[in-house]
Amino acid sequence: MKQGPYQLLGFLLLANLCYSQVGPTEESADDPRFPKGHCAGWMGGAPGHPGHNGAPGRDGRDGTNGEKGEKGDPGLEGSKGDPGEIGVKGIEGPRGFPGNPGKKGDRGEGAYVYRSAFSVGLVSGVPVPNIPIKFTKIFYNNQNHYDPTTGKFHCNLPGLYYFSYHITVYTKDVKVSLYKKDRAVMFTFDQFQQNNVDQASGSVLLHLDAGEEVWLQVYGEGEHNGIYADNVNDSTFTGFLLYPDMDHE
Ligand SMILES: [Ca+2]
């Protein structure tokens, strides 16, 4: 049986007490420090030396929670996330400002080719009957499609043409006809009244083929040639291409 610390201490104390009662003159027969029998003359001895420190005690119970600490620093930035889905199409924006003007285009082809026009007048009156009236006062004849030496307009560009004439009538009646290709296609008659000046006029649209000619001529027996002109009275003949034929036949 194992002895505890208190039992060991009691034993040592008792042994010490017995030894203290034995005087030097009362020696034991066997051993003076351990007399036989019980301690003779038992008395309280002096206090013993302090014992050794005991073994460490058990851990105490857990304490109560402390106060909440201060807020820590922000953590590190996380990694980049995946791309999100494509959003809904936005509303159409407002109309932009007009752009700058473009560069001037190249000159077109054949612009001059489709021009044909003339405007002419009489220099003096009373033309000769039964032949084309020769208008020699030139207002415009840049393409020279009108021939002042013959009095005829020569068609170079097939198409639709406009012709007109304004005639001063003086001293005699006027019967005038517009000819196309040796045939009178339009007639104008004006009777002269004494002591007066009259005008006769006419206009027409004609389609001409290339090479066809148009002119004015007094028709009849030559008695109605009162076509007149001087410095202040004109008799004119005008014609121009209105629409060219696009398929040059
Ligand atoms: Ca008249």
TrEMBL record:
Swiss-Prot/TrEMBL keywords: Collagen, Secreted, Signal
Annotated localization: Secreted
SMART domains assigned: C1Q
GO biological process: adiponectin-activated signaling pathway; low-density lipoprotein particle clearance; negative regulation of blood pressure; negative regulation of canonical NF-kappaB signal transduction; negative regulation of cholesterol import; negative regulation of DNA biosynthetic process; negative regulation of DNA-templated transcription; negative regulation of ERK1 and ERK2 cascade
Pfam families, A to Z: C1q (PF00386), Collagen (PF01391)
Keyword Signal annotated: yes
Leader sequence segment: 1-20
Renumbered residue ranges of the record's region Disordered: 23-106
All residue ranges annotated as the C1q domain in the record: 111-248
Protein name per its UniProtKB record: Adiponectin, C1Q and collagen domain containing
